[in-house]
Amino acid sequence: MKKKLSQTTSNIEKVDNGHLVPIDLIEYDESNPRINQYLLATQVRSGKKLHRFTKDEFLQALADTTSADTRARTFKSFAESIRCAKKIYNPIGIMPSKEGKNTFRCLRGNTRLAVYHYLRTEYPSDSHWEKIPCHIEFQPDELEITKRWNCCK
């Protein structure tokens, strides 16, 4: 069954291979192992128990170049390759948020989403980073989601 997007998400564009969705409408999936890994690392560094992981906190954890961790260098290199191409080649997978706030949860591509947030911060006048290519899944298969996450561990 195909669902239609609500009127309030009219700033979502239909394109050949999916949709272009404003990045501010997409939330990271905190149950994703990669996101959870950054959440735990930030908790250890800060000494605070975090219950939610804001976009800014996730970006800071990814791009923290003072960290001895190679993840920051890998993230910056990945961001640079996306910046040079002015796009991602593999759209992220999203589903409508259960809260019904006309927002989405990222199923696949949390790091690509983070790169778009990072690049929008670094290049605020470049409109390429306002919307990200997406496949919208209205009824994702929970078993398939679990398989995807297990490959990231």
How would you describe what is shown here?
- This protein is α/β, with parallel strands linked by helices.
- It contains 5 helices and 6 strands, in the order βββαααββαβα.
- The chain has helices at about 35-45, 55-65, 70-85, 110-120, 140-150; strands at about 15, 20, 25, 90-95, 105-110, 130-135.
- Strands 1-2-6-4-5-3 form a 6-stranded mixed beta sheet, with helices on one face.
- A hairpin with a 7-residue loop joins strand 4 and strand 5.
- The chain is globular.
- The mean pLDDT is about 75.
Name a few traits of the molecule.
153 residues, alpha/beta, six-stranded mixed sheet, 5 helices, globular
Low-confidence stretches: none
* Count, helices: 5
Structural class: alpha/beta
Name the shape in a single word.
globular
- Measured distance between first and last alpha carbons: 32 Å
Radius of gyration: 16 Å
Strand content: 15-25%
Integer average pLDDT = 76
The run of helices and strands is EEEHHHEEHEH
Helix content: 25-40%
Main beta sheet: strand number and arrangement? 6 strands, mixed
- According to DSSP, the number of beta strands is 6
Major beta sheet, strand line-up: 1-2-6-4-5-3
